[in-house]
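Students often ask why we bother encoding 3D structure as a string. The short answer is that it lets us treat folding as translation between two languages. Here is a chain of 69 residues written in the first language.
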Amino acid sequence: MNLFRSEEHIARWLGGREPGATIPVTTLCDLAFAWWGDRLSPDWVPHTHEQNTTILERLGLTGEFWALP
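And here it is in the second language, the structure alphabet:
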């Protein structure tokens, strides 16, 4: 994961290579909270594949890059 301040900064860093998935830092924060926010709960159980897929879809993270194996 790399953090950039703009699309132009990404393009410079890539130097002509094709980018992978890019998301705003606010979406990254939402993803981190949804994925890990309950881990310290005494009642924590791992998320199911379906629950994780739902998190990604709810945040608009769809497509081949975001497909879980």
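Translate back mentally: The helical segments are 7-14, 25-36, 49-58. Keep this in mind for the problem set.
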